[in-house]
Structure formats: structure tokens, C-alpha cells
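Postdoc handover notes: sequence design on the structure in folder B. Input C-alpha cells:
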């Protein structure tokens, strides 16, 4: 399903049905995902459709630019060391429609649960898309239409063993890659103290054959001041 397609088109996977078919001289876009349905009429003679994973912060509506991954069993990082772990993240799927030189967003949907939480206190904290994940030593096998794999490089710059139970990311820095088998991102966490860390994404695929997703904030021409996030309220 991921990639570029001419219309008409039709896809069906577990819990997802997506069709663009000609009806009464027009193209009709129809999509079902879980219990959610969407239908739109496209007034076009022909066009190209791009389907790829997008930043998972837009459902049920865009209320935050931050993703918090709660690690089910906290990991403890050795002093002055760097380790890699693998986490899962929720996949959101964007359907884009071709314009003259670029794309416009047509639809966004997800099979993953949609929860939000507050990171920090009520006065200066930030609302985050919430996700729970186990920590893995190798990339887990997951359904790419529901879950992605995040390779997280954790660098402990302190002289102490530091427990890590969560990671907060700025979604406007996400660099998502996809293939028919997986969706992935790479990120880093630099531990600055026992309660402070900085996170950032890398523009690098998990495997060489993966393609880079079109980023929603680029399509929407959003101004991005920073792609990092400083976790100052606990890690």
C-alpha cells in the first residue's frame, strides 16, 4: 500500500479498506479504518496518489507536536556510555494527492490507539501523544500498518547509573522511513543529568532499501524553529 499510485486504485488489509473509483463521472475516495470511515469526491481527470507513514500526532486532531513513549520496564544506563535500544511507535498513514510540483494532504488515519498525556507540571508542561512500548535489544517484528520501530541511541554523559522510563520527542523533527515490511525512525537521547535529557531525530533508514516519507509539516509549509526536545521534567 505504501508508495505512489495512479487512480483508480484499491487496497484492503486487516482493518483497512481504501478505494478510489470512478462513479458518475467523478472519482470517489473511500476509506475505512477500524470503525472510522471517510469519503470524498475528487474532481480530477487523472492524478497520482502517495501513501506513506506520517508524524503520529494528527489524530483525532492535531493538538500537540510532541510524542511521549512510556517504556514499560525502565532501563538503567551505565555511566559514561552509549547504548542502543529499540522501541515501537504508533504509525499514522497519510494519503497525499499530487499537485503541480508537490502534494496536498487528502486523508490521515491510524490503527493505533489515540491517547494523550501531560509531560511536566500543569503550569509549564506540554501535552504529548502517549504511547507505551517495551524496550528491545533487536528490532521487533511488528505490523507496519500499525506500528513502527524506533532505534534509540542513549548516551549517558554523567558519572552515575541513570534509569530511563520515558522519552519525549518533537514530532516536527521526525524522519520516517518505510518499506513493504517495516516503518522506522532513528533518534538519540543524550542524558545530561539524572532528570534531564535532550532528544533528536536522525535522517537515516533502519535498512538501506527503505524510502523516506513525505513530512506533513513540509506539505503544510509550517515554520519549524527547533527539531530537538529538552526533557527537563524527568526521564
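Designed sequence:
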Amino acid at each position: 500500500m505504501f508508495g505512489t499510485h495512479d487512480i483508480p486504485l484499491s487496497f484492503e488489509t486487516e482493518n483497512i479498506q481504501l478505494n478510489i473509483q470512478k462513479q458518475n463521472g467523478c472519482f470517489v475516495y473511500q476509506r475505512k479504518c477500524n470503525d472510522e470511515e471517510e469519503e470524498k469526491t475528487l474532481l480530477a481527470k487523472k492524478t497520482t496518489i502517495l501513501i506513506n507513514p506520517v508524524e503520529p500526532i494528527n489524530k483525532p486532531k492535531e493538538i500537540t507536536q510532541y510524542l511521549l513513549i512510556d517504556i514499560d520496564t525502565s532501563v538503567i544506563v551505565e555511566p559514561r556510555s552509549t547504548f542502543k535500544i529499540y522501541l515501537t511507535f504508533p504509525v499514522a498513514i497519510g494519503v497525499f494527492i499530487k499537485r503541480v510540483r508537490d502534494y496536498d494532504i487528502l486523508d490521515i488515519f491510524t490503527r493505533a490507539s489515540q491517547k494523550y498525556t501531560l509531560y511536566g507540571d500543569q503550569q509549564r508542561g506540554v501535552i504529548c501523544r502517549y504511547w507505551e512500548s517495551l524496550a528491545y535489544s533487536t528490532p521487533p517484528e511488528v505490523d507496519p500498518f500499525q506500528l513502527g520501530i524506533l532505534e534509540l541511541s542513549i548516551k549517558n554523559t554523567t558519572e552515575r547509573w541513570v534509569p530511563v522510563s520515558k522519552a519525549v520527542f518533537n514530532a516536527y523533527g521526525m524522519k520516517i522511513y518505510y518499506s513493504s515490511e517495516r516503518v522506522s525512525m532513528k533518534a538519540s537521547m543524550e542524558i545530561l543529568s539524572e532528570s534531564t535529557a535532550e532528544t533528536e531525530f536522525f535522517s537515516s533508514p533502519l535498512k538501506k532499501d527503505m524510502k523516506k516519507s513525505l513530512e506533513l509539516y513540509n506539505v503544510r509549509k509550517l515554520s519549524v524553529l527547533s527539531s530537538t526536545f529538552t526533557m527537563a521534567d524527568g526521564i
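Context for whoever picks this up: The chain is about 0% helix and 55% strand. Don't rerun without checking with the PI first.
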